[in-house]
Amino acid sequence: MNRRLRLFALFFLPFTALQAQPGLYFPPKTGIAWETLAPDSLGFCPQRIDSLYAYLDDRGTKGFLLLQDGRIVLEKYFDTFTRDSIWYWASAGKTLTAFLVGQAQEKGLLDIGEPTSTYLGQGWTTCPPDKETLITVRHQLSMTSGLQDNVPNDNCKADSCLRYLADAGTRWAYHNAPYLLLQDVIEAASGQSYNQFTTAQVKSRTGMIGFWFDGVYYSRPRDMARFGLLMQAGGVWDGDTLLADQKYLFDATHPSQQINNSYGYLWWLNGQPSFMLPDVQFVFPGKIVPNAPDDMIAALGKNDQKIHIVPSRGWVIVRMGEAGYTGPGGGNVPVIFDNVMWDYLNRLDCNIVNAHQPEPSPSRIQAWPNPTRDAWVIESEYPIETAGLFAFDGRLCRSITAAGTYQLQIDAAGLPPGVYALIVQTKTGVEKMRLLKW
Predict the structure, then answer these.
(1) pLDDT digits (tens, 9 = 90+) for 139-158
(2) pTM
(3) Is it true that the peptide bond before 371 is cis, omega within 30 degrees of 0?
(4) 397 partner at 20 to 30 Å CA-CA among 183, 220, 404, 415?
């Protein structure tokens, strides 16, 4: 009997990782009421909140929310942007599509293991028929269609733009067109427009507003937070189960293939041993957002549209706005902003000892593009004295005496692909960061 219980636990417990915990709060579906928690109840220091807001403002943020178990702890809007302003999710909206695909499958409208041609008809690509048939809906969800991604228009869904490069499932590449065709799959399977299906299955049941336009979702920041809360609750909204298939949710939020460990079904996964980025056929060691908790899952979109969900902390974090930094990820999935933001988030607690973890300051260096083929541009708000680029075996690859400049360039030509350590001496101390060459 004990052995049976252990087997039961091993099989079922992983699929409940995103299910709601006791005490999770859901705001009403209508109106603006939303319970809040005082930041000091979580031990947050006012001056550290101010530092976070200053950073967000400096980096083009329009709206920011932090929820604790569904309740708003931090909510801030910048410049003319307000609680009711509408902004786009960019590729962060891919995660909403992943949820809708799961619902369509649960309703028996489609099967993600079936060839995409089952729903779009044969000849939706220019691939040979036997190669086209290999592409399933699951491959679209996991970015492993094998279609040529290096095309003039990444969003082109015409068959002439969808060319064979590799067998489905053998290559990971961030490619928008196969993703966008998931919306066509749902429309074909459901007989509804994509907006109609979204309204019936998610918006009307959670109080979200918003709309799809040209494949991109637009809404208020709080609507983005509602979706994050729905995911935190394991597909359940205040007792209403929108998606009961916990295995699908588990698969969506865990590695979907063995090529890019940090990608599920259109969700980015932290805490994995390696990751890949758009436009780069290179596997980088380490987790995609080093400063964030390992259990974080993220919706990431162009110009730093974000939903971060951290089950271990009960947090949902939303950020809308302009691009905080350029690259890496070709602009489609930038992650520099995420990592620096988590520096500030990790220091909100007043109990953190400053002696070993100093407050973030404008002296933090940035680098772009990262990864690069040719060169990195290094920028600091304090004068740079020297900079050294080291291979991970300790070899010094580049050395620059900057003589007080605020920006410098480090040549990457001739360096083999891989991970490098940058050490910069500024007027205020030593800064370190990881640089990637591909």
Answers:
(1) 999 999 999 998 999 999 99
(2) 0.81
(3) yes
(4) 404
